[in-house]
Design brief:
By secondary structure, the chain is mainly β. The chain is built from 1 helix and 17 strands. It has 2 domains: 74 residues, no CATH class; 72 residues, RNA polymerase II/Efflux pump adaptor protein, barrel-sandwich hybrid domain (OB fold (Dihydrolipoamide Acetyltransferase, E2P), Beta Barrel). The longest helix has 4 residues. The two termini are 28 Å apart.
Amino acid sequence: MFVINGEEFSVEKKKISENEVSAVVNGKEIKLNVVREKNAFFIEKENALIPVFFAKDDSNNLYLHINGDYYKLHQKTILEQAGGEGGEVASGEIEPPMPGKVLKIMVKEGDKVEENQVLILMESMKLQVEVKAPFEGVVKDLKVKEGDTVNAGEVIVKIEKSV
């Protein structure tokens, strides 16, 4: 679930490759051709390259500037999707926010973790993405190893909530 400029969007399926981004957003399929030149990103539309500028903050927000338009994107955390900051995540199954490659695993099975502790560092579209613990608990099952490619919606780690 994403919030873009205050409006919620359901992302049912995503595919991110080096040159293409596609997703089903609120039931509509969207495909974008992405071009990267050095440290710049562009969206290809009708044989024209549109520059894309972005920045990320510590609150799970991504800010995009595309062709004069400004967008604030927020990917809802597991806790937010479960009903807000006080919501419960019964299963403790953690999925990556987007497809990518596992760069570094910061914990091992049996480790005690704090809420918001980084568990896994991933790379997606040349961006580093942190997968964090939604609550305090114990790592019960690591389902990936460094170098693995994972998909959005795939359970990559299970945490048992501390009582």
